[in-house]
Structure formats: C-alpha cells, structure tokens
Amino acid sequence: MRPNRLREIWAKGGAVANGWLAIPNSFSAETMAHQGWDSLTIDLQHGVVDYQTMVTMLQAISTTDTVPVVRVPWLEPGILMKTLDAGAYGVICPMVNTREDAQKLVAYTHYAPRGTRSFGPVRALLYGGADYPKHANDTIVTFAMIETAQALDNLEEILSVPGLDAIYIGPSDLSLALGCNPTFDDLDPKAAQAVEHILARAKAHGLVAGIHNGSPEAAARRIAMGFQFVTIGSDARLMAAGSQQVLSTLRASQAPKGVSGY
C-alpha cells in the first residue's frame, strides 16, 4: 500500500504543512498540490464543495506526492466511508464532543474487527494499491476536531479512545464556545490557555495535535509549541490576498493621485 507521508513525517518528529481547499475545482486543487504542500485538506463542512467535485479534486492531488485529506461535514458514517472509499488518506471530523463520538469516528473509519467500516474501496484501491484492504487501518489518519466547551470537559475521555490518531483544533469555534473573540491566531487569553491545555493532553496521550492558522508566522509559533499539523490559509484566501497585493502595488506605483481605477 502507498505509505502515508503524514505518518512518516510525524515518526521523524516533524510537522506537516497543510493547505486548505475551499474552491470546488480540480485545476485549482492540482495547482495547489504542485506547490509543495505536505498535505491538502478538501473542506466538505464549510463552503461549496460537494462529493462529486471532491473526487475530481482527489484525482488532481494524486498527480503529486501531496497527501489528500478531507474534512467531512459531520460525524456520519455514510460520508466518512465514502470519503475513504474515494481515496482520502486522512479525515478530519468536526464537533467530536464525547468519548462516544470519538468511538464512533474510529469505528466508521476502520475495517472489522477494529471498526465497522463497510468494504468498498472503489477508488482507494487505485490510489493506495491492491493491498489497501490489508493495511488501510494502520495507514489512514483519523482526526477528531476539538472545538467546543463540551469537548474540553470530555477531553481525557476523547483522547483515550483507542484508534484515534490525532486531534485538530478549530480556534474560532473554540473561542466562540468560551465566550471569546473568534479568530485564528491572536487568541483571547482564555482560548489560548485552552489551546495549550489541549496540546499538552494530546501529547500526553501520544496523539498528534493539529490546528488552523491564519498566517505562516502563527503556524511557525505553533510548531515551536509542539503542534505537528498546521494549516496555513486556504486556496480562496491565498488567491484573494495575492490579488490584493498585486493590485495595491500596481495602483500605488502607477495611478495618478485621486484616481482609484483604470
């Protein structure tokens, strides 16, 4: 079976640079994949990507060594299994709030006897290889999102579930849950303390910790803290930011004073 580079990077003590895909298009996914990201996450929870488009985006990512990850819309067995059948090598599940939620997540993403995943790896066989069924349980990476006050209350129980590989912090939702300003990087003290606590407990349980970031500087700081999976912006945000920078530079150097357009 094709190795999962996420596991290889983590085994060496490294951190994964993860990009985020919100644009429902295979060419934009292919372009992002060719930029050298360790992994790219297709977001089915928020935004406008549907399942069929996700499949074409996974195919586009497959033109590179970038690891394909998908954030599913919810803790629901059908979409988790179909996402893995399509060839995702990692899944991020939002709103995992209890030990029971974590147990279900692990069950839905693992074949028997370790789980209840139904057999039908249609495209996964093409991406992973003919021996995919034999090695999938130990190759796929399963992330549980920790982003609510309830999840914080149940943190130890969630982290102790066998088969869970990693947790992923959504700082905006976590901040909202704690009555703080929703943001990625400059968190209010209460939210920042919660992030540090989640990271420490995840490491104590031998799990990888990941987090969403708004800038490469913030991602670098969090790697220094001990995070081993850092998301840095999305394709849509990078496109907007690049366009703004180009136009700002052009207009500042060329436009006559008082003229705002061309």
Give, in spatial order, the strands making up the sheet with the most strands. 1-2-3-4-5-6-7-8
- Give the overall shape: globular
Low-pLDDT regions: none
The CATH topology is given as TIM Barrel
- Which CATH class is shown? Alpha Beta
Number of structurally distinct domains: 1
Mean pLDDT: 96
Second-tier CATH architecture:
Alpha-Beta Barrel
Instruction: Estimate the helix proportion, in percent.
Output: 40-55%
What would you call the structural class? alpha/beta
- Rg estimate, integer Å: 19 Å
Task: State the distance separating the first and last CA atoms.
Answer: 55 Å
Question: In brief, what are we looking at here?
Answer:
This protein is of the alpha/beta class. 46% of the residues lie in helices and 16% in strands. The longest helix is centred in the last third of the chain and has 20 residues, at 235-254.
How is this structure best described in words?
The mean pLDDT is 96. Helix content is 46%, strand content 16%. It has 262 residues and is of the alpha/beta class. Helix 2 packs parallel to helix 3. The longest helix is centred in the last third of the chain and has 20 residues. The protein has an eight-stranded parallel β-barrel, surrounded by eight helices. The protein has a single domain, classed as Alpha-Beta Barrel (TIM Barrel).
Secondary structure elements and pairings:
Blueprint lengths: L4 H7 L4 E6 L4 H8 L5 E5 L7 H11 L5 E5 L5 H9 L4 E4 L5 H10 L15 H5 L3 H8 L1 E6 L2 H5 L1 H5 L6 E4 L1 H7 L11 H16 L3 E6 L2 H10 L3 E6 H20 L8
Parallel strand pairs: 1-2, 1-8, 2-3, 3-4, 4-5, 5-6, 6-7, 7-8
Helix pairs in contact: 2-3
